[in-house]
Amino acid sequence: MSADPLLRGPIDPQAIFVIRWVAVAGQIAALLFTHSILKFELPLLPAMAVIGSSAIVNFWHIHAARRRRLYQQANFLELGFDVIQIAALLYLTGGLLNPFSILILAPVVVSAAVLRRKSTLLLVGLVAVSVSLLALSYHPLNWGQPVDFPPLYLAGLWLALIISSCFIGGYTWWVASSARRLSGTLADAKLALIEEQQSRALGALATSAAHKLGSPLNTITVVAHELSRDIKPDDPIYDDIALLRAEIERCRVILSEIDSHTSLKSLEAESPEPITALIEEIIYSRLSPNQTNFKLVYDRAKSIPVVWRRPELVHALENLLQNAHEFSAHDVTVNIEWTAIDLHITIVDDGPGFARATLARAGQPWNSSRAGQEGHRGLGLFIARSLLESIGGSISFANDHLGGGKVGIMLPRESMS
């Protein structure tokens, strides 16, 4: 991804445009109400000119958005202008003593939600500079009666606005960035599911094509044989007929290979298979267990339930088995039980188990004792839970009586087989 395009967050970047029009309307309404109803003496024309400049920038935004995508720099400049515009309006209407001075923090909140950290920090700095200038110089309001604000009160307002801009901007950016990372991880998981589904569809399509091409190829083969019998070796087109037969045989071999490979894959993907075979395939083909001893425990005297190789089920089991593999000391036990209605899979490792704080929020995003280490983001169990619930299953988390982690999966057999 390019470094310039705006990273979408919880707020659509187009919302900036709407927010700025709402701000213009609100500023005009507040200015007219204060001047006409409350009878405050205000520099009305200069204040309206300041508000009008914001409307001009909004119209420029409409024109520019038709020719280009929204970029970080453009949105930062627009929000920076908003800070300066609000500061200019506050200068004309009482400075920090204006009750609406808190609105100078609004561009910081929007920036923290949709822009990068550097842009938000620069905007916080601009707010700090603007607030400092307003604390030193402003056009005083005529309150209609003698009002003497002590300098300490003004200093308190100045400090409160600066601290608020830092805290609100930082907290909003942290929440928005967490939402962006969660969205990105879920998008990666969804992409993996789509790729697997497309791979299965492609295999089925190739098998179908191989079968359909077989019949016309057989016809061409028969015709080529008939032509080769009727043409003598000294005929000018004898070599061409021989070449045609060789190429036909080559096509038959290629179709045979496609048919054999794709039919096997299609059979594996489209036919239900024992749950034990699916789990073993995940363990030994996808996890590379190395020194970890995986043990499957189930009643071998009973008929083993069969399940469809659904991408959601495969990826969920892979995430859970991978998690148990990484936390185990030596052994991971997979206990499989079933009734006529449900299929129960319990994965137990001999590791340290879930920490109390982690267990309390197990299955929730950003919940891991290894979050931030070696790329771990605390989303594996959350994704597994989401995938299982999407196919009608459920999951539970606990610590085994021997101390290791224990994950229980319940799947309705009706939707699995």
Describe the structure.
By secondary structure, the chain is of the alpha+beta class. It folds into three domains: 171 residues, no CATH class; 80 residues, Helix Hairpins, CATH 1.10.287; 144 residues, Heat Shock Protein 90. It is 62% helix and 9% strand. The protein is built from twelve helices and seven strands. The strands form two sheets. It has a five-stranded mixed β-sheet. Strands 1-3 form a two-stranded antiparallel ribbon. The N terminus is likely disordered.
What's this entry about, in short?
This protein has helices spanning 14-37, 44-65, 72-92, 106-114, 117-136, 151-230, 238-270, 275-287, 311-327, 356-360, 380-390, 413-416, and strands spanning 273-274, 293-297, 306-307, 331-338, 342-349, 394-399, 405-412. The protein has 417 residues and is of the alpha+beta class.
Using brief descriptors, characterize the structure shown.
417 residues, alpha+beta, Helix Hairpins, disordered N terminus
Layout: helices, strands, pairs:
Elements: H1 14-37, H2 44-65, H3 72-92, H4 106-114, H5 117-136, H6 151-230, H7 238-270, E1 273-274, H8 275-287, E2 293-297, E3 306-307, H9 311-327, E4 331-338, E5 342-349, H10 356-360, H11 380-390, E6 394-399, E7 405-412, H12 413-416
Parallel strand pairs: 2-4
Antiparallel strand pairs: 1-3, 4-5, 5-7, 6-7
Helix pairs in contact: 1-2, 2-3, 3-4, 3-5, 4-5, 4-6, 5-6, 6-7, 8-9, 9-11
